[in-house]
Amino acid sequence: MDEKKIMLSGIKPSGDLTLGSYLGAIKHWKERADEFDCYYFMADLHAITVRQNPADLRRRTMEQLAQYIACGLDPEKNTLFIQSHVHQHAELGWVLNCYAMFGELSRMTQFKDKSAKNADNINGGLFTYPALMAADILLYQPDYVPVGEDQKQHVELTRDIATRFNHLYGDTFKIPEPYISKVGARIMSLADPTAKMSKSENDDPGRVTLMDDPAFILKQFKRAVTDCDACVRYDPENKKGISNLMTIYAATTGKSFAEIEREFDGQGYGTFKTAVGESVVELLRPIREEAGRLMKDKAYLESVCKQGAEKAGYVANKTLRKVYKRVGFVAK
Ligand code: TYM
Q1: Residue 169 — φ and ψ, nearest 5°?
Q2: Residue 1 has pLDDT above 60, yes or no
């Protein structure tokens, strides 16, 4: 029998998971659990490139694990772990730093955005972040990396670093493909449809998180920024707000844009916004309830991440040993 293909992805516990994190990433992860051997982690090493309150970071990391499970990622079928529990990430990250070029890292859009937002803390980690992300990926030799549109550039850089390394030392890394969904790969803020929905509340008053209560979610959708043309039509150039709401509705209901346009033909934005809000409330309700329940079972969550780290560590170690040998480190 052919071996299963491998899928891997991660999310930074730098803020509460949003509808964007769900529709852009997690939704696609859970659909693939039977088909692929899957690794999903909480990217805490990445989170500290921006200052975090330690207690909040700890809480959010465990909450994120509970949310992964509540979203349908069965820990028996998927390897779920905390990045810092698998030390090989930091180790391969260092090695790959030496194969990532200054020019390449300087061109990363996320580095440019984040340094503009955190002008008083443009640290080395923020700059070399993509080399660590390349390590996260390449340790597991995945075939696909399911991410939202904003992470595509980092996955492409990972491919370049892996190709460079393979060229120098012979086949070491599998070259992974980014896996980006057609609908939902870029969910925009409800308050500013020109900006990505962000995990951080300070950055985005127009976000909806997986743990928000129904009344708040409906309010967020009712006050979503749109235009004054009163016609539900998909036009991402000229009608960014409405097109974003249509994307969310398409992702939550499975309807096409043409079907949505017909459904709301001649109706005002109020009816449409309420329908989108309600579809999101129903989508998130079971996730919020299950995550809330799991958060009370600390022992279970700890056992899941312990088991996940053991399994991930075993695979990661194999790749790291191979890399150390290839670059010329003396074996222990
Ligand atoms: P992060 O934590 O910013 O986002 C996690 C995932 O959610 C997607 N996403 C979105 N998709 C659609 N619309 C949005 N508004 C939206 N916001 C977030 C992101 O594209 C991403 O897939 N560097 C990564 C974390 C990471 C990683 C990895 C990912 C670290 N190592 C290895 C894959 C493989 C990040 O900051 O994602």
Answers
A1: -120, 0
A2: no
Q: How far is CA 289 from CA 110, 276, 285, 293, 299, in A?
A: 33, 20, 6, 6, 18
Q: Which domains does the chain have, with CATH numbers?
A: 5-179+297-327 (3.40.50.620), 214-292 (1.10.240.10)
Contact 247, 238 (CB under 8 A): no
Query: Can you give the pTM of this predicted structure?
Result: 0.96
Helix (H) or strand (E) holding 172: none
Q: Is the CB of 197 under 6 A from ligand 1?
A: yes
- Ligand 1 centroid to residue 331 C-alpha, Å: 35
Distance CA 169, CA 326 (A): 6
Q: Which single residue is written with the structure tokens 């127009």?
A: 206
Listing DSSP states for 117-138 in one string gives: HTTT---HHHHHHHHHHHHHHH
Asked if residue 10 has its Cβ within 6 Å of ligand 1, the reply is yes
In sequence order, the 6+-apart residues with CB closer than 8 A to the CB of 265 are 232
Using pLDDT thresholds of 50, 70 and 90, give the confidence band for residue 31: confident
**Two tokens, residue 230:** 């009163």
CA distance 144 to 293: 31
Q: Is 137 in the pocket of ligand 1 (CB under 6 A)?
A: yes
